[in-house]
């Protein structure tokens, strides 16, 4: 059910998209098609650098027939709001993880499942596979959403707390912010905490005011949101490898010319690679800066966390799909 708040955001986004499109063709000028791209992250995050790269490639490659407008901090609504606007046909896109997309294509949720892959190379192999393209087809058919590229790796997710964490039992009773999607909620429950979904833009104040006790995020997001001011410990569990996709309206995409579609797809893929490289470059520096800011950083034995989260796959109906993914990754590792 759509809440009144989300309905207002949906209407606002559609109106904004309408007026952006309506003002695209000035008298005596060629038609320009606009795409609004939204992220919950800040302008200091490596993903934003990727989005800037995407904007430059699209506008240059199309020689100005396509225009990209970037919005940070969920300015046009949270990720779920933007997906609803895209489903309604608006010229809008959002950088979003597979967990949120599982509502529309169940298979997508496994991308946010705990300890699914061993490294970034395996993750990239998975999202570049024919198996993933089948999931993208389901998303288009079921929800009218289209993945432009799903290679935007944001980093491994770690625990953000006010006290040391050495094992899952240390999380018992903690209200821990996570993403509002079944796979994320189930993962945090399995680890022992009480999952508390909140928009990313609310996490700083919620930690500051003790509305929540803890959170979980990748290092770049921790630094970008200045969470080092309101937490004291980062425990490097790496429980989820956060990879996201640039997702837009299938209806809007199909209104483009074939040449424009190629430009958009190529730019999204290239920008995802660029953003990922920025994360890899920044992570060691960010960890050092967090430590200098007074945050204690530790890496616990991972086996207890692996064991605790094993139940997530069966609970969400991903056991068989996990076997398919593991077979795909084994083939990739053997090549």
From TrEMBL:
Q: Which residues form the signal peptide?
A: 1-25
Top-level taxon of the source organism: Bacteria
Q: Where is the chain membrane-spanning?
A: none
InterPro entries according to UniProt: DctP_fam, TRAP_DctP_sf
Supply the CDD domains for this chain: PBP2_TRAP_TM0322_like (cd13669)
Keyword Signal, does the record have it?
yes
Q: Which UniProt keywords apply?
A: Signal
Example GO biological process: transmembrane transport
NCBIfam families linked:
TRAP_S1
- Record's PANTHER family? C4-DICARBOXYLATE-BINDING PROTEIN, PTHR33376
Protein name according to UniProt? C4-dicarboxylate ABC transporter
């Amino acid at each position: 059910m759509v809440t009144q708040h989300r309905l207002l955001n949906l209407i606002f986004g559609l109106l904004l998209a309408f007026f952006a499109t309506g003002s695209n063709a000035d008298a005596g000028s060629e038609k320009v098609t606009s795409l609004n791209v939204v992220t919950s992250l800040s302008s200091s995050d490596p993903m934003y650098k990727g989005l800037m790269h995407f904007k430059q490639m699209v506008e240059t490659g199309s020689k100005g027939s396509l225009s990209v407008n970037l919005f940070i901090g969920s300015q046009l609504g949270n990720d779920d709001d933007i997906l609803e606007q895209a489903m309604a046909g608006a010229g809008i896109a959002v950088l979003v993880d597979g967990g949120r997309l599982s509502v529309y294509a169940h298979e997508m949720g496994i991308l946010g499942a705990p300890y699914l892959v061993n490294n970034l190379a395996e993750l990239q192999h998975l999202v570049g596979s024919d198996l993933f393209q089948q999931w993208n087809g389901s998303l288009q058919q079921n929800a009218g959403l289209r993945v432009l590229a799903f290679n935007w790796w944001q980093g491994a997710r770690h625990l953000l707390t006010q006290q040391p964490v050495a094992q899952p039992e240390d999380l018992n009773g903690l209200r821990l912010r996570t993403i509002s999607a079944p796979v994320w909620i189930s993962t945090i429950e399995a680890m022992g905490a009480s999952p508390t979904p909140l928009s990313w833009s609310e996490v700083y104040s919620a930690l500051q005011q003790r509305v929540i006790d803890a959170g979980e995020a990748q290092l770049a997001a921790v630094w970008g949101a200045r969470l080092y001011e309101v937490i004291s410990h980062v425990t490097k569990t790496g429980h989820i490898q956060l990879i996201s996709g640039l997702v837009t309206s299938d209806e809007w995409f199909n209104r483009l010319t074939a040449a424009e579609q190629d430009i958009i797809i190529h730019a999204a893929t290239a920008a995802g690679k660029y953003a990922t490289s920025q994360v890899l470059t920044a992570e060691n520096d960010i960890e050092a800066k967090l430590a200098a800011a007074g945050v204690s950083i530790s890496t616990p034995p991972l086996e207890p966390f692996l064991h605790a989260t094993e139940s997530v796959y069966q609970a969400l109906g991903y056991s068989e799909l996990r076997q398919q993914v593991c077979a795909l990754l084994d083939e990739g590792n053997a090549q």
